[in-house]
Amino acid sequence: MNAIIKESLQNSYSYEEYRNHVTALVKEGKTTGHDQSEAMIHYSELNEARLHRLDKTMQVTDEVQSFLEKINRKYIWLVIAEGWCGDAAQILPIINKMAQVSDAIDLRIVLRDDNEDLMNMFLTNGTKSIPKLIIIDQETEEVIDHFGPRPQGAKQLILDYKTTHRIVDETAKIELQKWYLTDKGVSTQNEIIALLR
């Protein structure tokens, strides 16, 4: 296994540990990461409510559940995230629900700002975009593939908005959250499963 990935895994959280950590920071008026600005703390507060709702309501589709129940390789799903990230708040609960379906998946989460070397291995167009799911074969310790930071439909929405408005502003972020609400995690599930086929 790559030394950087191995070190990151040693500093990783389970989903429950990650949620507890983020919640505790929000209660203290803080967030994860190196930027403790008012804006980032505000985003964390919004995401805390999102995570709470999605943990209760998110459902794995029948097709994805059936696929996950039959996988015969063991995987580590290592996710790079931060508490202030709106996309992570939408996608992490889906990934967690998928991991819960199968004993073959060990879900671990690391914070981007504390794992810069790992993040630099999985840049998106040269940027440190999160969340990023890294799929690792437990037996061979090789990276199979990676997913993120957004499913294709959400990616396209932001690209189209940038083309028209030349900026990603609050309106774009609201449109993105609406997209996630309508999609109900289906695109994310299907795109992740496609990487395992």
Q: Averaging pLDDT over every residue, what do you get? A: 95
The end-to-end span amounts to 22 Å
- Which structural class do the helices and strands define? alpha+beta
Could you name the ranges where pLDDT drops below 50 across 5 or more consecutive residues?
Answer: none
**Helix percent band:** 55-70%
Strand content: 5-15%
Order of helices and strands: HHHHEHEHEEHHH
DSSP helical segment count? 9
**Strand segment tally:** 4
Estimated radius of gyration? 16 Å
Strand order of the largest sheet: 2-1-3-4
Query: Oligomeric state of the chains?
Result: single chain
**Overall spatial form:** globular
Q: What attributes does this structure have?
A:
197 residues, 9 helices, alpha+beta, globular, four-stranded mixed beta sheet
Descriptive report:
The protein is α+β, with helices and mostly antiparallel strands and 197 residues long. Helices cover 56% and strands 13% of the residues. The chain contains 9 helices and 4 strands. It has a 4-stranded mixed sheet with strand order 2-1-3-4, covered by helices on one side. Strand 1, helix 5 and strand 2 (105-111) form a beta-alpha-beta unit. The chain starts with a helix and ends with a helix.
What is the topological layout?
Elements: H1 3-10, H2 15-27, H3 38-57, H4 62-70, E1 75-81, H5 86-101, E2 105-111, H6 116-121, E3 132-137, E4 143-147, H7 152-165, H8 170-183, H9 186-196
Parallel strand pairs: 1-2
Antiparallel strand pairs: 1-3, 3-4
Helix pairs in contact: 2-3, 3-5, 7-8
